Amino acid sequence: MMTNWKEEFIQLFAGTKEDIRIFFAPGRVNFIGEHTDYNGGHVLPCALEIGTYALVRKTANPFIRFYSKNFPETGIITVAYDDLSYQDKHGWANYPKGVIAAFQSFCPIETGLDILYYGMIPNGAGLSSSASIELVTAVMLNELFAQHLDMLELVKLSQKVENEYVGVNCGIMDQFAVGMGKRNYAMLLNCQTLECRYIPVAMNDCSIVIANTNKKRGLAASVYNERRATCEAALAKLQKHINIASLGDLTSEQLEKYKHLLSPLEQKRARHAVTENERTIEAAAALEKGDLLCFGELMKQSHISLRDDYEVTGEELDTLVEAAWKHEGTIGARMTGAGFGGCTVNIVKDAHIPDFIERVGKEYAEKIGYEASFYVVKIGDGAREITETKEMSA
Ligand code: GLA
Questions:
Q1: What whole-number distance in Å separates Cα of residue 178 and Cα of residue 128?
Q2: For 134, 208, 274, 277, which has the most beta carbons within 10 A of its beta carbon?
């Protein structure tokens, strides 16, 4: 398959195959710890085997050319390497442009590049297709221009691009999981200290099933920023009375004691941030002990809290998750990612997966009026250069 992509590359950009290099960055799924990263709490994501591929070559041209097999309608996008400003008309290509611009600030890139992208992750589904294209580009530039930045620096650079160049005020979870993922491990990440513990995921006779609501997400970014602002307002009020750096430093007991300082809405949002952080730490311990039943119950509590206190689920996610909870093959099910649509993450007994997909899918289509999509996924490694003979999960 990669060989065909190289041929496609040559057809698009001409030249020969010899000097093409290939990079890969995964998507991610978060098991638990949602809307906790920017609140200084813990998250428990893993990288996936599916992700974004990038084929690249240096050229003698004064411009950079981008093409995505996912967006053939935009054709080849050509930009001068000294004009990498954000432009609406460049759509998806703004992500890699932003990463190249960030590199330019410490490493003058004065050579042309031809880049062909191919993403296996459904776009905008909450599986971090944007962090994936950022990291695949960051790792690529790091190697091509021998910058020797470590992965954590590439992760932080990519998050900065998302925050400042793309303008989405996300936390660090996605870029961290995509960059630092490890096959068969989940990552318990303290988003305040960036201390990370790798926890082996022994699924035994179960698998991870991702279900996509296929809902078009409209106002997600503004609602996301609003949740973030409410939590920040709650924190500022609490900080006048308790010495905490973030809501991640707070226990449920402390919040109960001080909640009168907050508006009813701030109380709900803060309660989610605080209890979700506690659940995440507990879930990591359950995973370490191999107690999947306890893990599944915590996933359920997480969804309920996201539904009732944080209010980021919506009918589509609730329908998928509630149908999954009813199925006898389900160990755990919840929404994953930012919410408002996107995907659910499910742990399902292998023997039940076909029936799970059929019944949950049917209930969803009947209630919502269109189909959900299902993917059985495996936990993969973080962003890296690959060769075409090995590591082809496409
Ligand atoms: C999005 C953001 C992450 C995180 C999640 C919610 O995926 O990019 O930083 O906040 O939402 O947990």
A1: 8
A2: 134
